[in-house]
Amino acid sequence: MAQILAPSTQWQLRTKLTPMSSSPITPKMWSSILLKQNKKGAVKSSSKYRVLSVRSEGGTINRMEDLLNLDVTPYTDKIIAEYIWIGGSGIDLRSKSRTISKPVEHPSELPKWNYDGSSTGQAPGEDSEVILYPQAIFKDPFRGGNNILVICDAYTPAGVPIPTNKRHRAAEIFSNKKVVDEIPWYGIEQEYTLLQTNVKWPLGWPVGAYPGPQGPYYCGVGADKSFGRDISDAHYKACLYAGINISGTNGEVMPGQWEYQVGPSVGIEAGDHIWISRYILERITEQAGVVLSLDPKPIEGDWNGAGCHTNYSTKSMREEGGFEVIKKAILNLSLRHKEHISAYGEGNERRLTGKHETASINTFSWGVANRGCSIRVGRDTEKQGKGYLEDRRPASNMDPYVVTSLLAETTLLWEPTLEAEALAAQKLSLKV
């Protein structure tokens, strides 16, 4: 797992092999990791060996680490706030740092800031200023201390949300009294794929070739089954440190693919927690020299895609008689299937094929304990007559602000016509 344990790529050195010193390596030194590049099928390199990391007393990397780990708290009240926002593609994350005069406890204590929107695909060059509004804060697991990560959304100087600001609309829906009274809970299962840097091929896969078929990798243990566990574990702990409501993690069906779960989260908090967890994961993979992919079908063929299953319940669903409320919600979801699919992630048609634990993108379906349906209801929910539903349609690259608010809107605010409701109920065999 050399790719995982190596420091960030800017610290990786390519050098010729030099004679080793006769002095023994002290416990404080890092071992030099040498990879021969002349093996059959290996990527060609200009040098015979690649030194991934070298650390010695007083060495450059050692001094850099000392500075990165430096605790400035005893010397200043100032903190570093990392302002984070979503870029022009709607899925890329951007961030920059700002010094704040003292520790803060609420985003309202932070100043607004601006950035060059022409460089992120969010504004024209002749009028490029975009304003960041701080919305949520988390502890910074990279800098530690009182330093923070700040989730922001973006507005024009006139205060109008820019087109890629999906949080603003989500906040409006979640502030509606009907939605507030129902206390919507979300549990989001974020799947992702780790790729080798130079070849963009899944971690642990032979370059230009395929591993054995799926089966032993899901929740697997062992060097021939689990690829990237250090990244998953580092991310898990970093999320807990940051204050993210991460509830678990596991290796997925396709080798090199992982999942973590966030929730239960209420309302807009679900989107904030998923976005900040993605940012932390991007930073960890950056340091590990591994590429993070949220593509819903990173490898074509007989391999599982990557989704972002969204578990959802309301107060009425969780109370006695809640199963009938769930059925009514499923009916509404069936009538707005196309609207949801169009908002559930780019490239999702490559994943929702009806195979590999998915439903067809063109057909809405639901079932109890059926992972091949659009909406799955758990056995416990059916047995107890109350609980939650799982929307299995969202892709791994979905915008959680869009998906969570759309679920609330469709099930709590939108009302179908009586005729459409009756036809859908008959088609889905629902008695509501």
TrEMBL record:
Q: Name one GO biological process term.
A: glutamine biosynthetic process
Residue span, GS catalytic domain: 163-432
Reaction equation(s) it catalyzes: L-glutamate + NH4(+) + ATP = L-glutamine + ADP + phosphate + H(+)
The record's PROSITE patterns line, in alphabetical order, gives:
GLNA_1 (PS00180), GLNA_ATP (PS00181), GS_BETA_GRASP (PS51986), GS_CATALYTIC (PS51987)
Q: Which InterPro entries match?
A: Gln_synt_N, Gln_synt_N_sf, Gln_synth/guanido_kin_cat_dom, Gln_synth_cat_dom, Gln_synth_gly_rich_site, Gln_synth_N_conserv_site, Glutamine_Synthetase
The record's Gene Ontology cellular component field reads: chloroplast; cytoplasm
Region forming the signal peptide: none
Sequence ranges assigned to domain GS beta-grasp in this UniProt record: 79-159
Name of one Pfam family that matches: Gln-synt_C
- Which keywords does the record carry? ATP-binding, Chloroplast, Ligase, Nucleotide-binding, Plastid, Transit peptide
User: Any idea of its EC number?
Assistant: 6.3.1.2
Q: Which major enzyme category is it?
A: ligase
Per the record, the domain of life is Eukaryota
Q: Name one GO molecular function term.
A: glutamine synthetase activity
Location within or outside the cell: Plastid, Chloroplast
- SMART domains noted in UniProt: Gln-synt_C
Family, according to the entry, reads as follows: Belongs to the glutamine synthetase family.
| Assembly behavior | Homooctamer.
Q: What is this protein called?
A: Glutamine synthetase
Organism ancestry: Eukaryota, Viridiplantae, Streptophyta, Embryophyta, Tracheophyta
